[in-house]
């Protein structure tokens, strides 16, 4: 039983990171209909930027997190303005290919600037595990849980009550109608990329603190993709829950079946779910009336 609880707790901790990245995927897709395949690479880039900020200004965890989110949102805006906005009106496949090209460029830039050796992200957080019954968790993992709760609550209030959030929801439903109602769709697109990049920054800092930095951490973005498919590609909050479920499934499969299952368990799960619910657990089916 103790082994099960430890696997469960560590799976939830890993799933929180998947959830942040998955929410970023869903944020962009919901607003623009584009899957950003550079989300994991953006998370990695911001994590390395956070390393430089921490080393230069000796920032603690919370100031570093806020600074990284601000820098990441600026990067997201630049990507949208310089690379994505010129693709408006072009086939979605072309825009997706732009994000894939951006992903390859970021991987090369990270190795070119920071090198390929693993590096710890020092933020002053203790690395001594905290015992929660039979399970042990790192302080950074507890921080991840609290941050997830704050982000989900904040986004719910934002989408529910703010004018900009309501405009984003309207744009997600039907861009043409949003334009006719006077909504600046280009501005909404830019905001969605900025918010998505901010979520990637949170994931990047958490991954750096918990697991250290290394150029292969972009694979975390690929492994988080099943989370957004599981929760529903158009559901931001479903992606958060999907990430936690994927983290638990990965840990349980490796713990009880064997090594190597962790890398494929999430993809096996979404194959099973998609056969039953092609639009994910919380996604909305497209209904076309003829």
UniProtKB/TrEMBL annotation:
Q: Which domain of life is it from?
A: Bacteria
Pfam families to which the protein is assigned, alphabetical:
BPD_transp_2
Q: Where in the cell is it found?
A: Cell membrane
Q: Name one GO molecular function term.
A: transmembrane transporter activity
GO CC annotation, single = plasma membrane
Query: Which positions, given as ranges, span the membrane?
Result: 6-29, 41-59, 65-84, 96-116, 136-159, 188-213, 225-249, 261-280
Q: How does it sit in the membrane?
A: Multi-pass membrane protein
Q: Which GO terms describe its biological process?
A: amino acid transport
The UniProt entry, under InterPro entries, shows: ABC_transp_permease, BCAA_transport_permease
- For this UniProt record, give its keywords in alphabetical order, as a comma-separated list: Amino-acid transport, Cell membrane, Membrane, Transmembrane, Transmembrane helix, Transport
Concerning its family, UniProt says: Belongs to the binding-protein-dependent transport system permease family. LivHM subfamily.
Protein's recorded name: Branched-chain amino acid ABC transporter permease
Question: Which organism encodes this protein?
Answer: Caenimonas sedimenti
Query: What lineage does the source organism belong to?
Result: Bacteria, Pseudomonadati, Pseudomonadota, Betaproteobacteria, Burkholderiales
């Amino acid at each position: 039983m103790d082994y099960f609880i430890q696997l469960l707790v560590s799976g939830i901790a890993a799933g929180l990171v998947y959830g942040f990245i998955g929410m970023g995927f869903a944020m962009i897709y919901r607003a623009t209909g584009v899957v950003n395949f550079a989300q994991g690479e953006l998370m990695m880039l911001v994590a390395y930027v956070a390393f430089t900020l921490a080393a230069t200004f000796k920032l603690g965890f919370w100031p570093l997190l806020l600074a990284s989110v601000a820098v990441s949102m600026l990067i997201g805006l630049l990507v949208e303005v310089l690379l994505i906005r010129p693709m408006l009106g072009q086939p979605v496949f072309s825009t997706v290919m732009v994000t894939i090209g951006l992903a390859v460029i970021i991987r090369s830039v990270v190795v070119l600037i920071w090198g390929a050796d693993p590096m710890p992200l020092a933020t002053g957080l203790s690395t001594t595990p905290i015992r929660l019954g039979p399970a042990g968790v790192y302080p950074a993992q507890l921080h991840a849980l609290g941050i997830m709760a704050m982000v989900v609550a904040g986004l719910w209030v934002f989408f529910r009550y703010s004018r900009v959030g309501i405009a984003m929801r309207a744009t997600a439903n039907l861009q043409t109608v949003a334009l006719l109602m006077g909504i600046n769709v280009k501005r909404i697109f830019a905001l969605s990329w900025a918010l998505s990049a901010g979520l990637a920054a949170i994931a990047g800092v958490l991954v750096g603190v918990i697991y250290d930095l290394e150029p292969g951490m972009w694979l975390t973005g690929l492994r988080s993709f099943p989370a957004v498919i599981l929760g529903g590609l158009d559901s931001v909050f479903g992606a958060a829950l999907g990430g936690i479920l994927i983290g638990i499934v990965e840990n349980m499969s490796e713990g009880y079946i064997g090594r190597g299952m962790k890398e494929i368990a999430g993809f096996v799960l979404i194959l099973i779910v998609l056969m039953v619910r092609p639009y994910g657990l919380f996604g909305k089916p497209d209904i076309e009336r003829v």
